[in-house]
Amino acid sequence: MSSHAAAGTIDHHHDPSTSTGIPNKKLIMWTFLASDCMFFGALISTHLIYRLHPAPGSPSPKQIFSLELTSFSTFILLMSSLMMALAVTAIQKGNVKSMRWSLLTTIFFGAIFLGCQVYEFEEFVKLKNVTLTNSMFGTTFYTLTGTHGIHVAVGVFWLILMYVRSFQPHEAGRTFGWFFKNCLHITALVGAVLLSMFAVLGVVHTLHAGGTAGAYFASYLWMIAGFVGCVAVCIGFAQPKALSNFGEANAIDVESMGLYWHFVDIVWIVIFTAVYLIEYL
Amino acid sequence: MDAILKSDLQVKDVATETKSSVFWRPTAQTGLISWLTTVDHKKIGFLYGIFALFFFLVGGFEALLIRLQLMTPNGTVLTAQQYNTMFTMHGTTMIFLAIMPLSAAFFNFIMPLQIGARDVAFPRLNAFSLWTFVAGAIILNLGWFMSAGAPDAGWTGYAPLTSKAYTPDHSVDMWIMGLQLLGVASIAASLNFIVTIINMRAPGMTMMRLPVFTWMTLITAFLIVLSFPFITVALVEIMMDRLFGTSFFEVSGGGMPILWQHLFWVFGHPEVYILILPAMGIISEILPTFSRKPLFGYPIVVFSGASIGFLGFSVWSHHMFTTGMGTVATAAFSLATMAIAVPTGVKIFNWIGTLWGGHISMRTPMMFALGFVWMFMIGGFSGVMHSAAPADAQQQDSYFVIAHFHYVLIGGSMFALLAGIHFWFPLMFGRKIGEFWGKLSFWVIFAGFNITFFPMHFLGLNGMPRRTFTYDGNLGWNSANYIATIGALILGVGIFIYFAVMVYTYFKGEKVGKDVWDARTLEWSLPNPPPEYNYRVIPTVHARDAFWYMKQNQEQIAKEDATHAKEEAAHGGIHMPHQSIYPFVASLGMLIAGIGISVMDNDPTPGFWGKKIGVTMIGGVVMLVGIYFWALEGNGGYHLHPENDGDESNGKKPAKH
């Protein structure tokens, strides 16, 4: 593959080494997504069946949902798909730098979606008194949207791994020192995502509690400091001294990750319709 | 040779092997490490086979205990509790730990050879599937060694039997977690097989030239990929009920136990075809070989298999005719079930058409194959009887059902798998099972099987319910039960002869050359046992019975092989994937996490670092480390240059760079 990459003659739509011309990694991802379709199909069915047969005293979803917030996070998730598509296009043209920025934006948008979900769950439990166990609506709602959230979280983690991987040296350079740096890089990026998410949620909590900026910084300073530290580490690692061997030949890796990401978005469109919008008919 | 050494790939490979120090590159060819790190589909297939046969014997032993308990009225061999455990574990073991992995053994060993590939598409994922299967099998059977006991809620695990109220101990947790891991293993393996069959066929091997066994592998893999998610969701829901106190199947919390039945059978009915389609594939290889004719109506056999798979998703509620679904649903599922008899019958007629006018040679694999056709038909007839909802209302949960599904699972699946072992044994190990002992084992198994299960038809129609641990002497069931138990003992003797002969043959059997049966498909063009790279030169396929064509046109094939050998040498020789320990590490992590979730007691004080959560987290971390190293080490490999024609240099070591 590497020799092809040097010549710049990779056909991203046809892999001559397979019988069908479809790259193996793409085909296995398609097949896996077919399987995942059935998985979400069963979960969505469970939710709808119990919505059609509610137990007496079930809460009314319209009083629980905040459609504005969920519409916002849906929009953000769809935009993340756009950035994912840009990342794939970039790496197919061999533009690693542009791919990295698109990946980071995708990670950022994914984190916003996850933050919104954490906020939504927290509010439902604390303010609306809908827990996992106190009503069937809560049970199926948290199971379904939580499973989707885990899919998004896995996707964000995968994006982070791919971003860090784009700095990998040639195989000869993969020493223990590199491996240590690699792990640190991932930890810093995961830390930055988590800490920023909770620091922003902290702003909302402080506002809810009627607190001031001083109160906010008093409680969340260590989080902000940690976030800044993680970002600094990431910026430090983002200065590759040696050329990485990540390039056009790896486009298929980014593309199959993209297929997963788009699929998780499509599932969310279905969930947003079947779980949220349908209640307002 | 020099030209090859100068190629880019070679230089890159040498650099990989000498300078990279972070990743362990095991190279052991023998010993424990070689088995734990193997990515060779043939070794993985062999391990699947060994584990499956072990659990086949365990499941058989459980069945014998069940039959001994029922031999006489008011039997005292087992207590009611032990009896529940036995039939639960017998069913679960035979389906998930014996027949499915034995089919997987053939998928792994035979399918890549049949399409002219050197390995599956993702060799390390294949190793991961194997070890995750082993992890699931371990968790499923842990209960035997614990005070909670093995699972005892039936292989269908109907709610509310699995609820905390009825099973407060961990036995059902182990059943849930074991099946969950087996599902992961099956789905991962099936994704791999689908990509392999679609993408790694030799030149000229079009889809309509695929051997029928490979076709059935493909259809089975699709069934697994599309049906297992349903049981995954069902198991997640029951696990949440048990671990977190939700009410998916708890009536008191608004849950509906019937939902479990739907989710289970949306998986469970395709599962039936997951068990039988590989068997049909094996039969479709054996009958033409020993009739010395091509398979009659190949396209029809393939399309019938596909339509069985497709219709298999629309009949699940025929397991639930007595639950009161309403007349429309009952009629619809009844009709769909009858419709499945059509493609199945078409296959039977095609097999008979294959035999018709053939030069039939009655070797042991052929005996088992013919036994399959006959016994499977009997099971099919009683199946059609069940499809009529009013009749089924009478037969539901009776021994008639037991008779039916043992005719399709033993007389069907198991006969075909036993035939397959006899058929491919010479290819796998270079030795042939003796005809006398092979045929003797067939007749003893055949007789024992029929004496055991045929009387059960009458027991069922006389009203004997399944899953009762004993019965009174005045119900008219005594003699049939007695005969059935005698039959089970004969069946046990037959299986013992079969296995004893197999083990003997493995060590001391008659050595045979390649293509001992004068067979038709590509795998028989290989020397036995096949070299680790399978094909020295990737074959070019010209006809449906590819090897038969090769035997008729040897000059053309020799010329083509010579040209392709040169081309491949110019491309750097035969590419072999590196061995890897990381799939095993990932599976080990899943085993530890599974034990944490299912076996450990809930922590009395729900802190974050309790024993249960701690063990689960450790398992999760081990799994993540395994997967991450697996991803980082990359799918590199090395190149082989067999000096001579691999067909003749059987045993010579290939040159290694």
Keywords:
heterodimer; A: 281 residues; mainly alpha; Four Helix Bundle (Hemerythrin (Met), subunit A); 2 domains; B: 657 residues; Cytochrome C Oxidase, Chain A; three-stranded antiparallel β-sheet; two-stranded antiparallel sheet; 20 helices; 65% helix; 2% strand; disordered N terminus; disordered C terminus
Walk me through what this model shows:
The complex is a heterodimer of chains A (281) and B (657). Chain A is built from nine helices and no strands. Chain A folds into two domains: 181 residues, Four Helix Bundle (Hemerythrin (Met), subunit A); 73 residues. Helix content of chain A is 75%, strand content 0%. In chain A, helix 2 runs antiparallel to helix 6 and helix 5 crosses helix 7. The N and C termini of chain A lie far apart (54 Å). With 281 residues, chain A is mainly α. In chain B, 65% of the residues lie in helices and 2% in strands. Chain B has one domain: Up-down Bundle (Cytochrome C Oxidase, Chain A), CATH 1.20.210.10. Chain B is mostly helical and 657 residues long. Classes of the chains: A mainly alpha (281), B mainly alpha (657). Chains A and B meet through helix 2, helix 6 and helix 7 of A and helix 2, helix 7, helix 8, helix 9 and helix 20 of B.
Q: What's the helical proportion of residues of chain B?
A: 55-70%
- Count of DSSP helices of chain A? 9
At the fold tier of CATH, the topology name of the largest domain in chain A is Four Helix Bundle (Hemerythrin (Met), subunit A)
- Low confidence ranges of chain A: 1-7
Quote the CATH topology of chain B: Cytochrome C Oxidase, Chain A
Strand content of chain B: under 5%
Largest sheet of chain A: none
The mean pLDDT of chain A is 91
Q: Determine the N-to-C terminus distance of chain B.
A: 11 Å
